[in-house]
Each structure stands twice: as C-alpha cells, then as structure tokens.
Amino acid sequence: MEEELRNLSKVWISALVSICYCYFISSRISKGVLRLLSIIPVCILFLVLPLSLSTVHLCASTALFLSWLANFKLFLFAFEQGPLCPLPANLYRFICFVCFPIKIRKNPSPSGIIKSDPIPKWVLAVKILIFGVLLHIYEYSDSLPRFAVLATYCLHIYLEIEIILVFVGAVVSTLLGCDIEPVFNEPYLATSLQDFWGRRWNLMVSAVLRSAVHIPVQQFCTRFLGPDRAVLVGVMASFLVSGLMHELVYFYAIRLPPTWEVTCFFVLNGVATTIEIAVKRTLRWRPLHRAVSGLGVLAFVSVTGVWFFLPQLLRNNVHERAISEWLLVIDLAKRTLFISSA
Fold it and tell me: In the chain, is it the N or the C terminus that has fewer CB atoms within a 10 Å radius of its CB?
C-alpha cells in the first residue's frame, strides 16, 4: 500500500506539472491546431499515468479524471471551448477545473434552465449507511439468490460513484470557496432514458460529452441530414464515445484487452434513447405515470447493465478487489479513531 501511495504521488505531481505547462505556455499560443499540438504530449502522458497504479479505486479514479475528462477538456481548450474557457483567473482554479468533474454553481440561474439542488446531508448520510451495509452483505452472497447479488452490485456501483464524486466536489468546493453543481441528480427518480442520461446521471461527464462530441457531431451532420436527425446522430455519437472511454477505464483496472461488452451497453442505451426521442417528437404521445415510466427506466438500465456492464468486472474479480479495498479503508479508519480516543 505504501508503494501504491508513492506511485499515486508521482502520478499526480506529473499531472500538476503538465497542467501548469498548459496554463502558462499553451494558453499563450493562438487557439487551433498549434495549441492542440502543444497539448498533445500532455494528453499522451495522461493516458499513460494510470498504468502506474494497481488498486481499483485509485487507478479507475485517475483514469476518469485524467485520461478521460482532463484530456477532453484540454482538447476543447485548444479551440477555446468547454469549461476551461474563458481562462480561469488563477492557476489554482485551472488545475481544479482540469482535474476534477466540477462546475461552479451560478446564481441566479438563467431563465428556462432547471438547476439541480445540492444533495441534502441526510440523504447523503443514508446513502453512505446503505453503502456500508452492502459491503457487509457480500459476506453472505453465496446464500443469496443470483438476481439479488446482481442487483446489489448495480446499487453498489451507483452509490460508490456518487459518494466518491460528492466527496471530491466537497473538498474542491471548500478549497475554492464556492458552490459546486451536484454531479448526480437523483437518477432513481428519472422518468425516461433521456431524463436519466441527460439530466440526472453523472452530469459533469454528460456536459463534457455534450461539448466535445454531441454538439460538433450535430453541427457537422445538420448540413447533410437536417437538424432533427442530426440531434439523434449526436446522441448516438455521445453514447458510443462514452462506451469507448469506459472500455479504456476498464482496461486500466483489469489490464486485459477490451471485450466491447461495455461499449455494447452504451450503444444499446443510446439506440433506446434516440428511439425514445424520435417517438416523442413524431407521435407526441402522452407520458406514462411517473411510477410506471420510472420503474421501466430503472429496469432497462439495470437489466442491460447486468447483461453488458457487469460481466467483465465479475469475470476478473474486480468487485472483490474493490470490496477488499473499501474494507481496508474502513479498518484503517476504525484503528485511527481507536488510537485517537485511547
């Protein structure tokens, strides 16, 4: 573990030095191809850095923050687009915006745009409690029905991602002295796939994909297909790219060639979402009751997740490694509290 923490320090020191270079050097190069060429070495480095880590959480988090989101943000930055433009007032903010999935909350919000509220503290406490219970339920997984274990894994993934990103957002918010937009907006309350993926699930990733993939693809296809069909192509392109980037994160965690199951999960959800959007536009059907549509959305995402998202993790025992890491952290926290109180 000590060696892993040393490697983590080296990885993030390298990342910080590279981001400083982008802030002081690349930002002074005119936008376009020249600035992009100056940033490409940093993007390549960000693709290599997660390979220095071996634990699931540190490796996957670093891959998400640097190899995926930071690279996409820097690509947009090369063309004066995305969350890094206009250039933040100081290096400190630039580093935070590059490294972490955050967006500063602006008040008042523009009219017509619905902003998600920060997660109440009691709701977060309940989710942390449920997550802790799940970690101990795994001890009895052999005696549980298969569908119950798979459902537990789905809930585990959601809670773990949200808890980690909420914690990161809270730390960055405290350091910057400003309010941060919530990363999740209660996805279990979604009433449609479009609502789930576009307005509730991992909003910072959705925002980056919208700027880096959806809008450029939509603008390019509009001239050939018209605005309505171009929107659907942009949606599919976003899901496809998201699937490929998840394959990359899986590769860092598993260190095996991709099986493309995760890509199939996102492509399938992309197809279903585009069909849903097209049906809403053409038929103008009356929405189903929230309870019915909500259950349908959760069932579809969960079932397709069990089919395509989970198998690669389960085959390679990634879930067992992740659970062991959490139990180790909990054990260290207990020992620290015991020593401090003694």
Answer: C
Task: For residue 104, give the 3-state DSSP assignment.
Answer: strand
Per-residue burial over 108-141, b = 16 or more CB atoms within 10 Å of its CB, e = otherwise: eeeeeeeeeebbeeeebeebeeebeebbeebeee
Which residues are registered as beta bridge partners of 180?
Answer: 104
Say if residue 47's pLDDT is above 90.
Answer: yes
Nearest to 248 by CA among 46, 79, 112, 81: 46
DSSP 186-245: -GGG-SSHHHHHHHTS-HHHHHHHIIIIIHHHHHHHHHHH-HHHHHHHHHHHHHHHHHHH
What is the C-alpha separation between 69 and 203, in angstroms, rounded? 12
And the tokens for 340?
A: 């401090």
Closest CA to 69 of 207, 162, 240, 253: 207
Separation of alpha carbons 150 and 43, rounded Å: 36
Q: In terms of Cα–Cα distance, which of 237, 238, 243, 262 is closest to 316?
A: 262
Confidence (pLDDT) at 340: 67
pLDDT for residue 282: 83
What does the pLDDT look like over 295-324, one tens digit per residue? 999 999 999 999 999 999 999 999 889 999
The amino acid present at 317, given as its one-letter code, is N
| Cα distance between residue 204 and residue 209, in whole Å | 9
CB-count burial class (<10 Å; 0-12, 13-18, 19+) for 159: middle
What is the identity of the amino acid at 136?
Answer: H
> Long-range CB contacts (< 8 A, 24+ apart) of 157-163?
158/187, 159/127, 159/130, 159/131, 159/134, 160/131, 160/322, 161/202, 162/127, 163/124, 163/127, 163/128, 163/131
Render pLDDT for 114-130 as a digit per residue (tens, 0 to 9).
455 677 888 889 999 99
- What is the pLDDT at residue 335? 82
pLDDT, tens digit (0-9, with 9 covering 90-100), for 11-25: 999 999 999 999 999
